[in-house]
From TrEMBL:
One of its GO terms (molecular function) is hydrolase activity. Residues 218-333 form the Peptidase M20 dimerisation domain. This is M20 family metallopeptidase. Keywords: Hydrolase, Metal-binding, Signal. Residues 1-21 form the signal peptide. PANTHER family: ACETYLORNITHINE DEACETYLASE, ARGE_DAPE-RELATED DEACYLASE.
Length: 434
């Protein structure tokens, strides 16, 4: 088992076995009470933000949601700014807020959320539909609910006088669901703020296990891709396996099955998401679609494959690359292939600092009477903005709202989780900044 997985699983078992509730100090109890008192307004804020479509490509909608949260942060004494992206990137930009006292105490924090959703303007599903203690809507869990939790936690701290002499930055990105290219530009401001911070807390959706225990994220796999281009000798099908060779389709099948049998290891996945084969192949890279034509009595000369690759850390990536290249090089007669790789989101490695943050978060939760918090296996989460800052500072993710159906027309949020998550986050922030 890779060391990252072993560390996170070990910590989860230790937290469950050894965490003891100590209760909240009077100042912390006031913070928790402030969160509880504001719960109706938190739900109202979520509804107001959810009723604005903010699909990544709806630039006006992303900015409008940003303005909703900007007003909240302004009211809490943060200095806010909207960071535009280059016009040719086709992204709305990011909301950035900073607050720093004259004498900073404790850790310098970076809080992360995002304004965009996967739901573009023509997407099915309601913007907001209240259903008792839950609500359905586009992005209510991923992650407008998380943004609301940030505001609720910061408001409680401000009302309790606990924001003075703290250094806290907030970044709500406008393109988390489909980050703009080049990444060096779209994530430049985020990375620069991380360099001036000590800890990053991200408010992507919270996860619970089968027993109901809350889980947080100490590691995420990197996201990358592979391009596999296969060539064969075109000819009459009667010559296949003989003088005509095996053709591009059999070669592609050999390679993909070789990956399946010889490359897999815990935490590593690779998925051929698009494949086109025949004698006339055209791939539209920008839209990940294409056309292919051929005849049953003609040996195919071309196969084009584009795939996803996810790994826990760079050594695992390098092992996968090397083995995949070896398999590609073992060509069948009359065929050849070339493979290349592209990195996208860096890995969020499971580090001692991340595990310490989880321990502190779990203790805050336990002291507030909300139970211990365990660790999500890194392979169970997709990509997120925290991966751009995790190589620089201690990081913890999954502090957001609970729900289900993310990225689907049935996406929903458990409205009672707004209060629980905001209390956990506020107490953790309070303790980190003392």
């Amino acid at each position: 088992m890779p060391r990252q997985l072993a560390l996170s699983l070990l910590l989860t078992s230790l937290l469950c076995a050894t965490a003891q509730a100590q209760g909240l100090a009077p100042a912390e109890q006031r913070i928790a009470d402030e969160v509880k008192a504001w719960q109706p307004q938190a739900i109202d804020l979520l509804e107001r933000s959810a009723r604005i479509n903010s699909g990544t490509m709806n630039l006006q909608g992303v900015r409008a949601v940003g303005e909703v949260f900007r007003q909240e942060l302004d009211a809490l004494g943060f200095k806010t700014a909207w960071i535009d992206m280059p016009r040719d990137m086709g992204r709305a930009g990011h909301l950035v807020a900073n607050r720093s006292g004259t004498t900073v105490q404790g850790k310098r924090l970076l809080l992360l959320g995002h304004l965009d959703t996967v739901f573009e303007t023509d997407a099915p599903g309601p913007l907001w539909q209240r259903e008792g203690d839950s609500a359905r809507g586009q992005g209510v869990g991923d992650m407008k609910g998380g943004n609301v939790i940030v505001i609720a936690a910061l408001r409680a701290l401000q009302r309790a006088g606990a924001l003075d002499n703290t250094s806290i930055s907030v970044v709500f990105t406008g393109d988390e669901e489909e980050a703009g290219h080049p990444r060096e530009v779209s994530r430049r401001d985020l990375v620069e703020l991380a360099r001036r911070s000590d800890v990053a807390l991200s408010f992507e959706g919270a996860i619970t296990d089968a027993s109901g225990q809350a889980l947080a994220t100490v590691g995420r796999r990197a996201t990358a891709s592979f391009d596999l281009d296969v060539k064969g000798r075109q000819g009459h099908s009667q010559g296949v396996f003989g003088n005509g060779g095996y053709g591009a389709v059999y070669e592609a099948a050999r390679i993909l099955d070789g990956f399946r049998q010889a490359v897999a290891e815990p935490g590593l996945t690779f998925n051929p998401g698009v494949i086109l084969g025949g004698t006339d192949v055209a791939l539209d890279e920008a839209n990940s679609k294409g056309t292919a034509a051929g005849k049953t009595n003609v040996i195919a000369n071309t196969v084009t494959i584009r795939g996803d690759l996810r790994y826990l850390d760079y050594p695992q990536r390098d092992r996968a690359h090397a083995r995949m290249r070896e398999i590609v090089a073992q060509s069948l007669p009359g065929a050849s292939a070339a493979i290349s790789f592209r990195d996208s989101y860096p890995p969020m490695a499971v580090t001692p600092g991340n595990l310490k943050l989880l321990e502190q978060y779990s203790q805050a939760s336990n002291d507030a009477g909300l139970g211990t918090v365990g660790a999500v296996p890194p392979s169970a989460r997709g990509a997120g903005d925290i991966q751009f800052v995790a190589p620089l500072i201690d990081s913890l993710d999954g502090l957001g709202a609970s729900g289900g159906g993310a990225h689907s027309p049935g996406e929903r949020v458990d409205l009672t989780s707004l209060e629980r998550s905001a209390i956990r986050a506020a107490i953790l922030i309070y303790r980190l900044t003392r």
